[in-house]
What does this fold into?
Amino acid sequence: MMEINSRALCRTVVLAMISLFHLAEPFSKMDLTPACNSMTPGHGFQPQSSPPPFQLVANRDGDGKFTVTLSTLDGTQFEGFFIQARNQNDVQVGAFHDADPTARIIECPPGCAVQHDGEQKRTQVSARWDPLTYRGPVQFRATVVQGFKTYWINLRNDQFVP
It folds into this structure.
């Protein structure tokens, strides 16, 4: 009887450790898919209401794709980010690819997005965006996380790019 309890206890401890390992996964590696629509990280704090010290710029490349760059305006570093492309109806369009090494592309139905990959601080990040079959105006949007409690949502490039 004691051996059964020891085995059960051992199994319980192993399962608990596995569960804790998954819970302890760094936020920087977590998938932001739940934030796909709201563009709000689940940090439990309100976004900043001050103007963000960052800018989001999109430039059309010669091949019809865009290079989208999120950068600091004043040297302020950021550790997290989330970038999407949306049409005039607020629907995600196109696909990102060729992102910086500190970024990763995630599935964000109905399209995809770019988010941070790792906890390193940065002052700039870029990715390429392809409209695929989408034709029409597009606007790039970003969430920028300076620190866990300090973030800005819905940062946009100046205008829709035809």
Observations:
- The helical segments are 2-23.
- Residues 2-23 form the longest helix (22 residues).
- The chain is about 15% helix and 35% strand.
- The longest strand covers residues 139-147.
